[in-house]
UniProtKB/TrEMBL annotation:
This is Pentapeptide repeat protein. It comes from Umezawaea tangerina. InterPro entries: ARM-type_fold. Keywords: Coiled coil, Membrane, Transmembrane, Transmembrane helix. Residues 96-123 form a coiled coil. It comes from the Bacteria. The keyword Coiled coil applies. The keyword DNA damage does not apply.
């Protein structure tokens, strides 16, 4: 089929195409403004705009090239109108995407708010449990005090941020004056000691938190921190009764046994002291075992007295320890590192 060229005989058609295209485009712009202001669907404006684009492009082709075939002009105009509709489709998809993103953001904010509300409720309940348990520690009945200790430990296990606070309270309970005469109170204290051990991270736990223990003036009996990690450890003027185990323990912070007294077997072997390890004025009436322990910081044993034997076999020190006026003897065997000198107990017996 031969294409029909546009000549001056159908110039009127071109004029009508321009007029119709201009009017249609103007109507499309009006519809677009109305849709934008009213936040309405722009489909009508798009269709009218596509028709306007078709008419204008077709008329324009007839003007710039009078030899253009009618079919080619209509095809090109149709492509122009289709492009308008395609642009609308792209805009519509982008709008849907942004709407979905906004919906997801709102949903996330709602979920975060719900989580915050839930966390606030859990924190409030935890605070109430904590306050109630602390209050019950002063109860006159030993079973109630044991229950309060377990409640605190359970809270620390479920809410990690309470762990150090709970450990402080357990240590505070052990620092209370006690003469060892009440079997019931001794059971409560044994429970507190066991819970402290349970709350501390195990030795093989990687990147574990370092919790501090303050047991100054405490009376400790069968206290066991074997295979545990500790931060700062203070047992100044503490009383160690029967048997206490701190072997295979990592002391990451400063450790103080200054002025403490040992009345049983004290196991400190195969442990690592990463910072200070001060045993100044320490008095032991039974065996103390330090064998194969490592002292990586400042170590002090000055004015210490070991009457029941002491072993430093295989110990390692990163710096020269302070052993001024160290005293050993009393019938026990003293195994000291090479180069150490100590006074015998006979020379210091009257002072004790």
């Amino acid at each position: 089929m031969t294409a029909v060229a546009i000549t001056e005989q159908n110039a009127g058609l071109v004029k009508h195409l321009w007029i119709a295209g201009a009017v249609t485009t103007a109507v499309a712009l009006v519809l677009l403004l109305v849709s934008l202001r009213g936040k309405r669907n722009m489909l009508a404006a798009t269709i009218v705009g596509a028709i306007g684009a078709f008419l204008l492009v077709t008329g324009w082709l007839f003007v710039v090239d009078s030899t253009t075939a009618k079919g080619e002009a209509i095809k090109t105009g149709g492509l122009a109108g289709g492009s308008v509709i395609a642009l609308y489709a792209l805009w519509l998809n982008d709008r849907k995407r942004r709407t979905e993103e906004a919906r997801q953001a709102i949903e996330k904010d709602r979920q975060d708010l719900e989580n915050q509300r839930s966390e606030h409720d859990r924190s409030r309940v935890a605070d109430e449990r904590f306050a109630r348990a602390v209050e019950l520690l002063g109860h006159e009945t030993d079973q109630v005090r044991v229950g309060a200790l377990h409640a605190l430990a359970g809270l620390a296990k479920s809410r990690v941020e309470y762990t150090q606070t709970v450990l402080d309270i357990l240590c505070s309970y052990l620092r209370r004056p006690f003469d060892g005469q009440s079997p019931l109170e001794n059971e409560v204290r044994t429970t507190a000691q066991q819970l402290i051990s349970d709350l501390l991270p195990r030795l093989d736990q990687v990147d574990a938190p370092h919790y501090d223990l303050n047991l100054t003036n405490a009376r400790l009996e069968y206290f066991d921190l074997e295979n545990r990690q500790v931060g700062n450890f203070a047992a100044r003027r503490a009383q160690f009764i029967s048997s206490n185990a701190f072997h295979h323990t990592a002391f990451h912070g400063n450790t103080y046994f200054t002025g403490a007294q040992n009345h049983g077997r004290l196991y400190l072997h195969d442990s690592v002291f990463h910072a200070r390890a001060w045993f100044s004025n320490f008095v032991s009436h039974d065996n103390v075992d330090f064998h194969d322990s490592k002292f990586l910081g400042s170590a002090k044993f000055a004015y210490g007295t070991y009457l029941g034997g002491v072993s430093f076999s295989g110990t390692a020190f990163s710096a020269e320890p302070d052993i001024r006026a160290l005293r050993v003897g009393g019938g026990g065997t003293a195994v000291l590192p090479d180069g150490w000198t100590a006074d015998t107990v006979e020379a210091a017996e009257e002072e004790l």
